[in-house]
C-alpha cells in the first residue's frame, strides 16, 4: 500500500479542498464594553485595541462588526463605583446604562444578536458574582433572585441571549423560570457552564474594575484540574434549560471543549478570554511572533476542539481577514 499523506498537502488549493475544520465570521462573537458618556473610546491598557465605549461609539462598532459578517455581540457594563453596592441594585434599573445600551443596539441593528452578561460583579461593591456575607462567604441561593431580576431587565431591553457567568448552583433553572414567567420564552440562555478559576481574567477585570475586594472566586468557579466536573455542570445546565454551553477560558481548556462537544447535543461556545488576547498582542507588539497567524491558528484550534462559536476580542481583526 502506497500511502503518502503529503499528496494532499501539495498545493494551497488541495490543502483547502481536504481541510477538516473552517473558521468563518459568523462563528465569532465580539465582547464589547460599554461606559457612560458621549464620544468616549477609552483604550484598555492591558488589552491593546480594545476600548470602553460610550453608547454612540458602541453603535458605530456594532455596525462595523455586522458589515464584517458577525451575527452577535456580547455586551458588558463598565460602571462607576457610585453605582455599585452589596446587592447589585443597579443591575435591575431599566433606565440604567446597560439596558439603554442593549436597547440602542437592537433598535439600530435589529438583525444583530445581542448577548448580555448576567453576574453581580460589574455592579457589586464587593467585586464578587454573588452576595458576600459578613464572614466573606458567597451566598448561593440568596443571589439567585438578583440574577433572575437582572436577566428579566436585560430581556425587557431587547437582549436575545442571556449569558449567566456567575457559576451559582441552580441559576439556569431560576433564570429560565423567571424569563418564562415574564413571557420571554424565546430569549435564549448561553450558560457559562465550565467557567474556571483562571489566572487569564486579569485584563477583563481591569476593563470593568471588577476585581474582588477580598478573597477569590474559587468557591464558585471551577478547579482548573477538573474535567468530569464540567460534564456534571453541563448535564445540570442542560436539564435546567440552557440553550448553549460555554467553556471559559478557551485555550488552556481545549480538552474540556472537546469533552463537552462529545458529551452534549447542545451547541458549545468557547470564550477566548482577555488574558489569551493579551498574550498574543504583547508577543506580536514585541515582534516575537506573527500576530495575525497566531491569532488565526488559535481561533481555529477552538473549532477543531469542537466549539460551534467563539467569543473573542480578536473578532474584528479575524473577521476582516476572513471577509
Describe the structure.
- The chain is α/β, with parallel strands linked by helices.
- The chain has a single domain (about 25-320), classed as Aldolase class I (TIM Barrel, Alpha-Beta Barrel), CATH 3.20.20.70.
- Helices cover about 40% and strands about 20% of the residues.
- It contains 11 helices and 12 strands.
- It has an 8-stranded parallel barrel with strand order 1-4-5-8-9-10-11-12, surrounded by 9 helices. It has a two-stranded antiparallel ribbon with strand order 6-7.
- Helix 3 links the parallel strand 4 (about 70-80) and strand 5 (about 115-120).
- It is globular.
Please tag this protein with its features.
11 helices, 12 strands, alpha/beta, two-stranded antiparallel ribbon, 323 residues, 8-stranded parallel β-barrel
Poorly predicted sequence stretches spanning 5 or more consecutive residues: none
**In CATH terms, what is the fold-level topology?**
TIM Barrel
Helix and strand composition category: alpha/beta
Order of helices and strands: HEEEHEHEEEHEHEHHEHEHHEH
DSSP summary, beta strand count: 12
At the fourth CATH level, what is the homologous superfamily?
Aldolase class I
What is the rounded Rg? 20 Å
Number of separate domains: 1
Determine the N-to-C terminus distance. Answer: 41 Å
Largest sheet, if any? Answer: 8 strands, parallel, barrel
Beta-strand percentage range: 15-25%
Helix count from the secondary structure assignment: 11
Structural shape:
globular
Mean pLDDT over all positions: 96
Just name the CATH architecture: Alpha-Beta Barrel
CATH class: Alpha Beta
Amino acid at each position: 500500500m502506497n500511502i503518502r499523506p503529503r499528496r494532499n498537502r501539495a498545493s494551497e488549493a488541495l490543502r483547502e479542498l481536504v481541510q477538516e475544520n473552517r473558521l468563518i465570521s459568523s462563528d465569532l462573537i465580539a465582547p464589547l464594553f460599554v461606559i457612560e458618556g458621549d464620544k468616549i473610546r477609552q483604550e484598555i491598557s492591558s488589552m491593546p485595541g480594545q476600548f470602553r465605549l460610550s453608547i454612540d461609539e458602541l453603535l458605530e462598532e456594532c455596525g462595523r462588526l455586522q458589515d464584517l459578517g458577525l451575527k452577535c455581540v456580547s455586551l458588558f457594563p463598565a460602571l462607576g463605583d457610585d453605582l455599585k453596592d452589596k446587592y447589585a441594585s443597579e443591575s435591575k434599573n431599566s433606565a440604567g446604562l446597560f439596558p439603554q445600551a442593549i436597547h440602542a443596539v437592537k433598535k439600530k441593528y435589529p438583525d444583530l444578536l445581542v448577548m448580555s452578561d448576567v453576574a453581580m460583579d460589574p455592579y457589586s461593591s464587593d467585586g464578587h458574582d454573588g452576595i458576600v456575607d459578613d464572614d466573606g462567604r458567597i451566598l448561593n441561593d440568596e443571589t439567585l433572585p438578583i440574577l433572575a431580576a437582572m436577566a428579566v431587565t436585560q430581556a425587557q431591553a431587547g437582549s436575545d441571549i442571556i449569558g449567566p457567568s456567575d457559576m451559582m448552583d441552580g441559576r439556569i433553572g431560576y433564570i429560565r423560570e423567571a424569563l418564562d414567567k415574564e413571557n420571554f420564552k424565546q430569549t435564549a440562555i448561553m450558560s457559562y457552564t465550565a467557567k474556571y478559576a483562571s489566572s487569564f481574567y486579569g485584563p477583563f477585570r481591569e476593563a470593568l474594575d471588577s476585581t474582588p475586594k477580598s478573597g477569590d472566586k474559587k468557591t464558585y468557579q471551577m478547579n482548573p484540574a477538573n474535567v468530569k466536573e464540567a460534564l456534571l455542570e453541563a448535564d445540570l445546565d442542560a436539564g435546567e434549560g440552557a440553550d448553549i454551553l460555554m467553556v471559559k477560558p478557551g485555550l488552556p481548556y481545549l480538552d474540556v471543549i472537546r469533552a463537552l462537544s462529545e458529551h452534549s447535543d447542545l451547541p458549545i461556545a468557547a470564550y477566548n478570554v482577555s488574558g489569551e488576547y493579551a498574550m498574543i498582542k504583547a508577543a506580536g507588539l514585541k515582534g516575537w511572533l506573527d500576530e495575525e497567524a497566531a491569532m488565526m491558528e488559535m481561533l481555529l484550534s477552538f473549532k477543531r476542539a469542537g466549539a460551534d462559536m467563539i467569543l473573542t476580542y480578536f473578532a474584528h481583526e479575524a473577521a476582516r481577514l476572513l471577509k
